[in-house]
Design goal:
This protein is an alpha+beta fold. Helix content is 37%, strand content 23%. The protein binds adenosine-5'-diphosphate and magnesium ion.
Length: 491
């Protein structure tokens, strides 16, 4: 497949000597401003190393960026509706939960708290809608006039749990602005949109805290055993510590929550003697490893409590891949999003269920006939779980007659335009070679509300991740992608 190209924001290659010198400065800037991660190979809490970053901001059409920003509150509201539509969630997840243990675990918690009566009607949604430009025109018969070098953008997924990059998004803009200035192109910075993701996401947490309204209550961040993506997480805490010194924040793993918290008679979650106002999950669950029974118990205890959760269990279910696919099915958006349905449908690419029915069968046939056009996704988060190309075919042939296939969705593969650029990585030779790159834009949204009332609904910032054009996935924490930020083009 030949992909179209977007030109980089300044001419490259950059002369060797200038390039080496600017990378050296940029690496120091990175270390001193939290463009960092912990080293996975030689883990120590005493050091961070630079996170991979793209030297120059990647071009992105301004009109498409603006469209994504404007659409975010609409997507927030859709997710909020889905999370509160019990029947839709039940119908959508019923087959997947038969065969997917993790989805079943979440679902069981949801059923339990609904039976017992939900103690906290307010949810805090901190969402990130991820999208890619599509370089082909999906309308093969009436190609649109603008299908080169891109036609439109399509949603990759929407995250309702552990949507990272509140700090790494904005700081990517700052480091690339610094680099542009060092290269004598400071005049171009005006094309890099402001990014207030960190303060916007933190304001979601403090707004929920204030709604909880119990003096002396605390905020709990749920973290994994070992946090590699430490800069991204800690900056939220630092920001809140600075703007709201009255709020105490704790970081705990689910294992620690099991050991150290209890529910009092008012169903408040008590940690170190204080009620917890907001629980913010910073980790999904490790995709390769199911939570232990104690971790599930901790999750249930949190859900039973009066704390405002981000996400609440129904929000996490609403963020599953299966729900994304069900929203693309005929009629679903019309019912859930009313007048906004056409605007949302426009950003969906082909999404197909693999349930055992006629449409599931034809999806299998379609993917077997042209596997390169599709991505096969299980009900997991956090990167590295999807199947591409030959692996799609292999998996479908293996699962064709097995119930297992209902745990997957099939998605049309998006083919973004390519940009040439430099990726700077810890431990890699300087200067790096010019490589072909593709980007994925994430738009952050915050929504706070109950089933019947929305208190707050905003777009709060963005992030851009960029990977080698021939790589399937681009998780930065997973070591594949690199931090980046958009350079808006009028085209
Ligand atoms: P996860 O929950 O693991 O983040 P995603 O759906 O975001 O799952 O997929 C992971 C990555 O795979 C994305 O960041 C993107 O790079 C790639 N990807 C996913 N879906 C598509 C698609 N339809 N077309 C092209 N690339 C995709
Ligand atoms: Mg993703």
């Amino acid at each position: 497949m030949s992909q179209s190209r977007l030109a980089s924001c300044i001419p490259i290659p950059i002369e060797h000597k200038i390039l080496v010198s600017v990378i050296e400065k940029a690496k120091d800037w990175a270390l001193m401003h939290g463009v960092g991660m912990r080293d996975k190979k030689n883990f120590t809490k005493d050091a961070i190393q630079i996170a991979p970053f793209v030297l120059l901001p990647s071009p992105f059409p301004r009109s498409e960026f603006e469209k994504a920003v404007e659409l975010q509150p609409v997507l927030n509201e859709l997710m909020h509706k889905v999370a509160h539509d019990d029947e839709f969630l039940e119908q959508t997840l019923k087959n997947a939960l038969q065969v997917d243990e993790f989805t079943r675990g979440l679902y069981n918690i949801w059923m339990k708290v609904r039976e017992e009566g939900i103690m906290q009607p307010t949810s805090l949604g901190m969402l990130r809608s991820d999208l890619m430009l599509e370089s082909r025109c999906p309308d093969a018969t009436n190609r649109c006039s603008s299908h080169k070098p891109y036609c439109c953008w399509k949603q990759v997924e929407i995250n309702s749990i552990a949507s990272g990059f509140g700090h790494l998004g904005p700081v990517s803009r700052q480091i690339q602005s610094y680099i542009l200035r060092q290269l004598g192109h400071g005049d171009l910075i005006k094309n890099m949109p402001e990014n207030l993701a960190l303060s916007g996401l933190c304001a979601g947490i403090t707004e929920a805290y204030d709604l909880f309204g119990v003096p002396g209550s605390v905020v709990l961040f749920v973290v994994e055993e070992v946090s590699y993506n430490i800069c991204d997480q800690r900056f939220h805490e630092f920001h809140i510590a600075e703007t709201r010194p009255d709020i105490m924040i704790y970081r705990k793993t689910l294992g620690e929550i099991y050991e150290e918290t209890e529910l009092n008679e008012k169903k408040q979650l008590i940690l170190e003697g204080s009620p917890v106002a907001v629980v913010y999950y910073r980790s999904g669950y490790e995709p390769a490893q199911y939570p232990t029974p104690k971790e599930w118990d901790a999750r249930l205890r949190v859900e039973r409590s009066t704390a405002i959760k981000c996400p609440s269990i129904q929000y996490q279910l609403a963020g599953t891949k299966k729900v994304q696919q069900a929203l693309a099915a005929p009629g679903a958006l019309e019912r859930l999003a009313g007048g906004a349905a056409p605007r949302i449908r426009d950003i969906f690419t082909g999404l197909y269920s693999l349930d055992f029915d006629d449409s599931g069968e034809s999806a299998v046939e379609m993917a077997l006939a042209d596997a390169d056009k599709f991505v096969l996704k299980p009900q997991r988060e956090g990167g590295g779980n999807n199947l591409y190309g030959a692996a799609v075919r292999e998996a479908l042939l293996r699962m064709r007659r097995s119930r297992e296939r209902a745990a997957y969705i099939l998605m049309e593969r998006i083919l973004p335009p390519i940009v040439s650029g430099y990726v700077v990585r810890a431990g890699a030779p300087v200067p790096p070679p010019v490589t072909d790159l593709v980007s994925e834009l994430g738009i952050f949204g915050v929504i706070i509300g109950t089933k019947d009332k929305i208190y707050s609904n905003k777009q709060v910032g963005h992030m851009l991740r960029t990977k080698l054009a021939d790589a399937d996935e681009g998780g930065v924490a997973a070591g594949l992608g690199a931090l980046d930020s958009p350079y808006l083009l009028d085209m």
